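User: Can you write out an input/output pair for a complex, sequences first and structure second?

Assistant: Here is one pair. Inputs:
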Amino acid sequence: EVQLVQSGAEVKKPGATVKISCKVSGYTFTDEYIHWVQQAPGKGLEWMGLVDPADGEIIYAEKFRGRITMTADTSTDTAYMELSSLRSEDTAIYYCAKGAVADFRDDFYYYIDVWGKGTTVTVSS
Amino acid sequence: DIQLTQSPSFLSASVGDRVTITCRASQGISSYLAWYQQKPGKAPKLLIYAASTLQSGVPSRFSGSGSGTEFTLTISGLQPEDFATYYCQQLNSYPRTFGQGTKLEIK
């Protein structure tokens, strides 16, 4: 069974940095991308970026570029997302999620197939 | 960035109804679209990818269609467990944007 187990809830002060971990099991870590998604209270899903554990390639959403760092440790099958210069608007649940790809209709179709349970980050003075 | 607009944002329906949610992309995305279901306090769950391919284990009352800029998610014969929020996501280009969500409520 594929599982993504995220680290526990965090409370941070404005200006601080948070680092969330996402340990995977049940598949080969380097075979698929890891995505990170933000969900503010009562709001929708916002894609933050992804990391390719196979080669460390990273793609960030413009909104978070400059404050976000995604890494993947292949020795422990764990992905990390670090967000700095925290502000109240960063209060949210952060999900890691496993990417997938389907090869059919002479094309490759990417999607996200398994999600972690989420990590709640609260930014408050 | 590609914008995804879902309609309606809120939908009220009864058990047994057939409902359709639309997702419109600001530019063509071929069939690079997925649909997710999210229940309160839970992580999203994949329903459909490649616009119309049902994820393994998802009930056949869920179906997806469309290509280019207009897509639909249809639930035929609503069950009590289907009342949730539904999101589309485009995987044609970066950033991998989501629609704003459609909340399906019990009438």
